[in-house]
Amino acid sequence: MNARLIETLRIPAIFVVATLVFAGNRYFPTGTAHWWLIGCGVFLMIAAMACAGFALRGAKSRGHNREEPSWRLAILWQLQIIAAFAVYFVYAKVLGTKPAPDTFLTKALLATWLLLGTLGFFMGLGVEWAQMSNGRGDYAEPQRVRMAAVGWLKIGMLAVMMAALNFVAVKKNVTWDLSYLKTTQPGESTVKMLQSLGQDVEVVLFFPQGNEVLSQARLYFDSLGVRTPKLTVQYKDVEVSPVAAEDYKVSRNGFAVLRSGGQTERFDIGLTITAARKNLKNIDADFQKALLGVTEKRKNLYFTRGHGELSWSAGDEGSPLKSIKLLEGFLRNLNFNMRYFGVGDGATREVPADADAVVVVGGDQPFLDEEARAIQAYVENGGRLLVMFDIDAPTEATISNGVRDAAKDPLVKWLAEAGLRYEPKVLANTENFVAATRSDADVWFLFSNVFTSHESVQSLARNEQRAAVLTFRSGYFVTSQDVKEWKVTDTIRSLSDTFVDENRDFKFNEAKEKREPRVIGAVAERKVDISKGLKPGRIVAFADASTVSDPIIRNQANLIYFVDGLRWLVGDVKSSGVASSEEDIRIRHTNKEDVAWFYGTIALVPGLVLILGAFATRRARRPRSGGVA
Length: 629
Known about the structure:
This protein is an alpha/beta fold. The protein is built from 16 helices and 20 strands.
């Protein structure tokens, strides 16, 4: 084969390799197509290196000794890329279906293949760029190619170092807030609370005149005053109005105080921009918490325990998917008292009289008959129950000490009789899923924006184009609309191309499985004669407890679903939604947008810099047209 043809085919082959490997991992993460694309990519990479070997051999046979070092460098950087591929395949094999590396071996393999691939890429960029203008035979410049290889290798090392520093900073939670100052505006739930106020509320801000923070805080509080005539806003200075400061129990400026019906709540905003930056971004949440404190009685939520439920007091060694510490903090800010409710707390006798709702979040152990009967009696007498199932919830269960056998978990059985039959079979979707781990298990990480018009999901239904609830390893419900004592309503359904992964192989079996929407959220209300003063019992049920776990509830739609469902239970739909926060706004992109941002930052911008640099260099070398003859 012609030597020039070999050299010409080598570079396009490398670009084809990159495209095939990227497509195999990005768009075909599993199946036969994945391995075909990866196999073709590896074959072409080896072929490209063989082309460099032929070029080296041809240079030797022609006696062109000055060409040999350049071709050796070309072979070297390609060997690094092949080694990176080899380590990556070992890493993928060891990792399996785990969402992230959790052992020293997997972390070391991850770091190794990324290091080899990055250094090989940058070194190859320098070598091949220099080779494009390198001479042949006696005109070859091996020193220039070597200098280019070393220079770009240093750039690669710098990139690796920056990535490592960024990783450490993220792990150590070290951040710098370089954003502009922006005060949040009243959120939807705050506006609803103001419009439904049944009593006068007085708001007093203590700031000195001309304070820089006061000018920002006014943007928020002045907008509150026009929402309802029942809320008045005043501005005072501790130094100018010491009597008012003593009355409101404020010792210094920088505070906001709310008072209504003899109740007083206050929160600190800060006197300097540096101190107040974060508080101004979260001012809506702070105001909403204080408003609830002066206008509403704290409601009591009893969370069941003793059955493997998600908990806010679990140790750090537990799985993040079993922790609800973020949810606990948020509910306390919304004026809820959260208490545990287990056998030791009287769960086998009755639900406490001061309970506004009982909450069951997951669990992989069955309830005792006495516990289930206590919850059933509570709900049927006008109580409220929010239950979120775990995919491992026992439908066939026994007590470990052999005291009794239970054909069914009694709580699950009673809910089925009320029209909410739970099926602990995992839902999957091979077309629409959250690509979180790039593994087969991602087909179980689903999202849905299919909401009904029920009151408990009205906020989500109005924003279905922007909001989607996330679930991981979710089961589903088979609901009954004709139950005599209960009115059952679906609230959330999965996407229409979702199927039940019967054998949990992460694949759609057309012969045995069917794509169709499944009910993942529902409510039930007991039919009673309200004219007789009876209070209807209510149930909110969701098919996946992990949706409120710490890693997943960061998705705001998940939090809104839980809070709005809870507010519907206790009869407080007037304040549905969550507080607005500039700090909590997260930038999210679709897959296509992610690709654009990725290539724009790592390829387009550096490419433009290099092109401008080359243009400036060539222009500087160009001889001037004027001058002395």
